[in-house]
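Check this:
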Amino acid sequence: MCNCLVCGNKVEHVISFGDMPIANGFLPEDMFEKEKFYPLDVGFCPTCSMVQLTKLVDKEDMFNENYAYFASTSRRMVEHFKKFAYWVMETYLSEDPFVVEIGSNDGIMLQNYAKENIKHVGVEPSENVAQAAREKGINTLSCFFDKENAQKIKAEYGEADVIAGTNVMCHLPYIRSVFDGVTSLLKPQGVLIFEDPYVGDIVRRTSYDQIYDEHAFYFSVSSVSYLAGMHGLEVIDALPQNVHGGSMRYILARKGARDVSDRVREIMANEEKQGLKQLSTYQAFAANVAQNKEDLLTLLKRLKAEGKRIVGYGATSKSTTVLNYCGIGPEYIEFISDTTPIKQGKYTPGMHIPVKPYEAFVSDYPEYALLFAWNHGEEIIANETAFKDAGGKFILYVDQVRVDE
């Protein structure tokens, strides 16, 4: 057992995935022998209801000048963040506004504020993606957001109307320092808005590939409410989002500063019904994960025995968990197709499956494609008509293992 990263109380063990490489650590062949592995274990805190990793990887090992995720490569996410930004502008900005984004990546969201000449600062620790944002004219600092750096931002730019974070708060095990920074930087009526994968969806869909080294936390409204209360904040609204396989957008303000939506109470009541505050729910989830692994391996072994070609679709961070936990290597997956240039010509972390450009998939269709980018599955399957016309089929493993006919 270990102590909770939020409240400091004892955490109960839920599941161990074994030793894992860095999820986004796509690497060349000459780096195989230097690859590092870390235990991936998940726990649940009965006190504050936070689901979390119980062993952590140094943040500098994950977020550095070689970081392989550029958010703007997804057209769907570009549109999502545009809508997010303009919703914030219409709802929460005052006169002479100032917006701060934690983990701003390549500027996918802040570019919308820059276009409207709104004062902004992006905080992005990975220098390569931070530089990509600067080249778009987006004011970006290359550092980690914490209490100390929040105070530096405040000293230079003043207090913020909005502090935003998208798929980043769950990355920050030093979350208490982050929230200390938020409370020092926000205006009295300011809001913190962030969205991350929702643990209720992860449990319901057995989407265990959402669990990897970058994701220290798996939030619910109940656990975020507890965390907020420790820092004089409260959740004033919570909005489910149909991105990243099921996310929740949390809006926090200083306690008593703004009205609390009825939706917060409704979602928390639903979380009680789903059992998200009970250890037994996560123990059942762990059993479902083990069954999913068995089902996926059984399917892949049968297809290979029949002489079928299988290619992976989408070299995602999530795929690292599935491949390494299930022991799926090149003997099952010929290569993985991906459109991200920085990953092409490299190999997947741990299992060392080649990553090839999308053109390699199109030029010689396999019989089956294992869909790792399942969170974009509806869009991908609808667009891959030529693959399906050639007799190709997608293998899916969320919510259950199946072949898409």
Notes: The chain has a mean pLDDT of 93. The longest helix spans residues 279-305. The domain at 307-404 is CATH 3.40.50.720 (Rossmann fold).
